[in-house]
Structures are given as structure tokens and as C-alpha cells.
Amino acid sequence: MAAEGHAPTAGEYIRHHLVHLTNKKQEFIVDFSVINIDSVVFSVLTGLIGVFLLWLGARRATAGVPGRFQAAVEILVELVETQAKGVIHNAASRKLIAPMALTVFVWIFFMNFMDLLPVDLLPAIWHAVGPALGYPDYLRVVPTADLSTTLGLSVSVLLLCLFYNIKIKGLGGWAHELVTAPFGTSRNPLWALLLGVVNFLMQMIEFVAKTVSHGMRLFGNMFAGELVFMLIALLGGFAALSFTGGLLFVGHLIAGTVWAIFHILVITLQAFIFMMLALIYLGQAHDAH
Known about the structure:
- It is a single chain.
- By secondary structure, the protein is mostly helical.
- 73% of the residues lie in helices and 0% in strands.
- The chain has one domain (10-286).
- It has helices spanning 10-17, 37-59, 68-87, 91-113, 121-129, 147-180, 189-241, 245-286.
- Helix 1 crosses helix 7, helix 2 packs across helix 4 (91-113) and helix 6 (147-180) runs antiparallel to helix 7 (189-241).
- The longest helix is centred in the last third of the chain and has 53 residues, at 189-241.
- It is globular, with a radius of gyration of 24 Å.
- Pfam families: ATP-synt_A.
- Keywords: ATP synthesis, Cell membrane, CF(0), Hydrogen ion transport, Ion transport, Membrane, Transmembrane, Transmembrane helix, Transport.
- It is found in: Cell membrane; Membrane.
């Protein structure tokens, strides 16, 4: 991470923490064969935790007075179901979409929650284990601070939108919508052709813009939060090297505590926003223009 025998500078520390553990050496080119192993592993682990907790809540559900855990799960399920009913009016579609939205919310929350772990906790453990196993000394633990993860989630929402556009409107009906909305059409063949091309391009731009912004919003917020925690960690590191270390250490504790408390709201809000946008986009797929 730094030159032999020297402590890393602030820039080296941050750069090191922003490098993913991958399946091959990273180059400054677009290479879709590169897999961020750390993002995949922590995404799967947090997903399993979320599914297990939801399963546990369903297994422990009773008809009597609910306990705290059951009450919390019921409140969450009712919240998501209410939001789904307000956006998607097709009851048959909600049987799939509402549980999907609940899963997405819980999964993204736990992926975001990884940002609340001490910055150097898991990387320090990997530093002692990874190189000994022949792996590089890099590890990022917040999957949603990886653009490939968030864009993967948003592309999945896009594919569901395409599926429901065809299922609800039929292939012919959706194809007609692609060339007639948002600007309509004309009885004049030449104008109808021109408007059809413009409408189709506008629809493609809308799909791309919604998908990219959907993933970028989550990524941007979580990446920024990760950087703030790194800067706070550096404040603690400087405290050990400074004559005014006591004051810096107190500042490190206060800043870390305040940001962690605020970040609990951020990670919850970002999970909710991603879920709501997914519901809105899927609801739009059910509506005719």
C-alpha cells in the first residue's frame, strides 16, 4: 500500500481502499471479463442475511400478539404492500412485484449497512489472510459503492419493465406505443414516419436515462459516504502522529459518531428510494400512454 518502511500518505490510503479485489489485473480499458469478487461475495452474503431474516419472520409469525421482531417485519411488509398498491393497480402483477420490492429494499439496506462497519476492519483481516492465499491485498466491502452492482440492479428493473410492457400491452400494443408516444402520430404518411422515428428515439432515451440514473443515484450516495468514512478514519490516523493528537482523536470520535448516526438515515433512505423508483417504473410499464 505504501513504500517499504513508510506509512501510507492520505492519498495512498484512500487509493488503496478504492481498489477492488478482482479476478484479474485491472487495466485502464473497458473489460467486461473483470469481475469484482469482493462486490459479488458481499452482495451474496448480505442477500442471504436478508432472505434469512424475512424467512425467520414468516416462520415465527403467530396469530396472537406479535413480538418485536414479528411486528417490525409486519410493518415493513405492510409498508411495501401499501406502496405497491398505490403504484401498480394490477393485482396479479403485485403478487410478484410486491415481494420483489420487499426483497430489494432489505437487500440494498444490508449492502448499504456494510458502510457502517469500521473502514479498516475487514480489509485488515483480509490483509492478514488474502496475500497468504495468493490474492492481492485489496478489499472493498460496500457492494452498492460499486457502479457495476448498482447498474446491475437497475438493468434488472429495466428487464422487468420490458417484460411487463409486453405482458400487459401485448407485443403489438407496446410496439405501437413506442412509435406513437409521447408526441402522437399523424394521418400524413410522411409526418407519421417522421414522428414514429422521433417517438422511438425518445422512448429509447427515456429507458436508458431512467436505468442509468436509477443505478447512479444509489452508487453516488454510497460512494460519497464511503469516502467520508475514509476521511474520518484518516483523522484518527493523524491523531496518532500529531502533538495535538488528543484533540484530533476527540474530533475523530465525534465526527465518526455523528456521521454514522446520520448515515443510518442515508442507507435506509437510499434503499427506500431505489425500491420506490423500481415500483414507479414497473407501474409505468402497466400504464398506456
